[in-house]
């Protein structure tokens, strides 16, 4: 019971941020003395801090505020086609440092590991002096085999059968976990973004060279038997002969592309924010028709997903969110024509709430999950952690 209560308190502080002892007592139903004892244990474990509010702001004795210890961190890595992004994310989901290494072409798994190792080695002394590193989380734009975290296939990166978890563990000395970027994006949105407090949601993201997604059902991430669930980009959306990265014809990834939007806009490249601004400013019929066509493809897939999964919320990321921003009424109406009315009733469609930090936060959540389940385990892990120097 004590371990369960420790987990409950740490989860509340992690997801909600600083919260008073009195509010923790109300939310958990535990008495104040029990909350005090649990908070003290979490402080002793180095996972939370207590803040005494300014007495001038309260009548009577102020309740202490329990806050996540921001020195407890995960290192997050997101390899992409044109960059490798590495960040430090603290307990509480705060990105405290972020570095994006631009590359001319997709890096190999070994090159991505070398970049990450160089980043970590460059601040090793700081990490060991000022932080407690729980581990490394990797957001992969491709299929990841859940049991061992190996990359089965990431076609846009040119990776296949890459033991990325083992490679990073051996190179850095830290424990490593990896998962599909879409699934991690859905976790981040559920915990800190547009889907906070929503137990049934679909996350679907359009990035530079593909489409990824994740499913949260009953508050739990859906991974499937081998970890390949929610591959929305490979769902049929037309009878087109255009193929996606897996060689499948007429899928959402083949039909709805960022490159087609850039072509319609008459520009060669644009970051996510620049692309959205260009779409919002566009007045040509060519751009509008391209956007409508891509939203129709998206609506076909979302209609099918709604009929199967029955979510409360659909969160759009990347250029898919930009399509919706340009024509905000188009997608809901297009989905309504393709989904069962009962399943679609009450469904909301929203843009991602975490912006460019989404996947770093998601990768960190992968690392923090075991800690949140059993905070006391950090004591035994500290005793067995090897020296990284």
UniProtKB/TrEMBL annotation:
Signal peptide: none annotated. InterPro entries: ATPase_NBD (IPR043129), ROK (IPR000600), WH-like_DNA-bd_sf (IPR036388), WH_DNA-bd_sf (IPR036390). Coiled coil: none annotated. It comes from the Bacteria. Pfam families: ROK (PF00480). PANTHER family: BIFUNCTIONAL UDP-N-ACETYLGLUCOSAMINE 2-EPIMERASE_N-ACETYLMANNOSAMINE KINASE, ROK (REPRESSOR, ORF, KINASE) FAMILY. Belongs to the ROK (NagC/XylR) family. This is Transcriptional regulator.
């Amino acid at each position: 019971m004590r371990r369960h209560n420790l987990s409950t308190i740490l989860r509340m502080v992690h997801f909600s941020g600083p919260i008073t002892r009195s509010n923790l007592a109300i939310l958990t139903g535990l008495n104040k003395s029990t909350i005090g004892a649990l908070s003290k244990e979490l402080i002793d474990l180095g996972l939370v801090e207590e803040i005494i509010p300014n007495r001038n702001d309260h009548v009577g004795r102020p309740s202490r505020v329990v806050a996540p210890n921001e020195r407890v961190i995960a290192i997050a890595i997101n390899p992409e086609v044109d960059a490798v992004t590495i960040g430090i994310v603290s307990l509480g989901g705060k990105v405290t440092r972020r570095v994006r290494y631009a590359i001319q072409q997709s890096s190999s798994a070994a090159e991505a590991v070398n970049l990450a190792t160089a980043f970590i080695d460059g601040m090793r002394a700081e990490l060991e002096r000022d932080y407690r590193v729980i581990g490394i989380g990797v957001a992969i734009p491709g299929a990841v085999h859940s049991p061992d975290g190996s990359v089965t296939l990431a076609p846009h990166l040119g990776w296949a059968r890459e033991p990325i978890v083992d490679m990073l563990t051996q190179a850095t000395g830290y424990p490593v976990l990896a998962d599909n970027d879409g699934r991690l994006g859905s976790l981040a949105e559920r915990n800190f973004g547009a889907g906070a407090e929503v137990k049934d949601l679909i996350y679907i993201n359009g990035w530079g060279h593909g489409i990824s997604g994740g499913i949260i059902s009953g508050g739990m991430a859906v991974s499937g038997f081998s970890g390949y669930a929610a591959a929305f980009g490979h769902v049929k959306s037309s009878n087109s002969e255009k193929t996606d990265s897996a060689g499948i014809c007429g899928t959402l990834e083949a039909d709805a592309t960022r490159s087609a939007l850039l072509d319609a806009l008459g520009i060669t490249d644009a970051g996510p924010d620049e692309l959205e601004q260009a779409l919002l400013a566009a007045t040509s019929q060519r751009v509008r028709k391209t956007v409508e066509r891509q939203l129709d493809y998206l609506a076909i897939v979302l209609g099918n997903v709604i009929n199967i999964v029955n979510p409360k919320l659909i969160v759009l990321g990347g250029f898919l969110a930009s399509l919706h921003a340009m024509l905000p009424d188009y997608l809901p109406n297009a989905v309504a024509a393709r989904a069962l009315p009962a399943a679609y009733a009450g469904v909301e469609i929203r843009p991602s709430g975490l912006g460019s930090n989404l996947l770093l936060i998601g990768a960190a959540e992968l690392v923090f999950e075991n800690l949140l389940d059993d905070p006391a385990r950090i004591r035994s892990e500290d005793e067995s952690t090897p020296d990284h120097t």
